[in-house]
Amino acid sequence: MSSTWKVYLLALVSFLVGTSEYVISGILDKISDTLEISVTSAGQLVTIFSFIYAVCTPVMMALTAKVPRQRLLVIALGVFVAANALSFVVPGYGLFVLARAIMALGAGMVVVTALDIAAKIAAPGKQASAIATVVMGFTASLIIGVPLGRMATAEFGWRSVFGFLALAGLAAMVILAAAMPRVKGDAPVPLSKQLAFLKNGNVALGLAITFFWLGGYSIAYTYISPYLLDVAGLNEQMLSVALLVFGIASLIGSKAGGYSTDRWGVFPTLARGMVLHVAALIVLSLAVAFTHSWPLVVGLLALWSFAAWSTGPTQQMNLVQLEPNYSGIMLSLNQSTMQLSMAAGAGIGGVIVDQVSLSSVTWFGMVGVAIAITAALVLRGRRSAGQQKTEAVA
Known about the structure:
single chain; mainly alpha; 15 helices; globular
């Protein structure tokens, strides 16, 4: 199997993990009815998953630093499979929460290890594209995995979703064990030293880019459905079309970001993507305020999604370049920051909707991305100054 096909296999695994995280949002009502809990309690399953993923992934990656990446990926996928199987059979809410926590532990290690392997097995000059492909698998779960989960729920009940994920994960374990190369782990780094990376100004700025970029995105995206229905004036049928277009654009944006990074570099791609992100949100806000032309709104949604997700693989590569000898840890910290920023963005968005207005979420989201642009410019200046200092000493 060529390295290209191995990267696509890693993207498929990333798709399974992404589906396990996001599918809850698509079947909340069914879980609520079956377990006889409120929709709010069911919604806490999303929060629990994100929190465990964010906090525990760096710890687990530090503890498993010496483990060869292929073996770690198979082990982590085994934890993920076991948790999905448990979700399929447990009778009550408490045990299901436990299963979600275990699932998050495995999912975090699977995604970070898959990204690490993809970067290491890619052909020279194609690392960002390889990372983009794995990220694309995760993104595809929003477009394909969640609707498929809803369909499976309608036919077989919501527990069947986790049964199918367990079976698919088991098959992936067998293939990965046979197909993935034996990639060495990173140099072992104690957790205290891993957390010490946060004291590194460049790393802190790099993670700040992730937090504000994705946090700004989440402020607006979390409420995209009511925004399009109540503010933009789309009907239910057009909402489905708009969300599908949005999802397709995110896939294209992810691949374009990886290609651009390989071709033109990290900072030009980051700058262009985030500036376009801000511009798309501004124009979308104005278009919704002054016109209810659905083709224009859908087109601007596609532009927003394309710009937003073009930053994903670029930012992964940015963190890897900051500490190339500790790529696994950098990817782990970035994944944790992404989860925390999504949770923060959703929470801030809720406050904005309650205290300001639903129509203002795009404006506040734009501010978050603008802060990320500022952080990127500062980081670029620091790295340029550091490089010039090194050359002067040499």
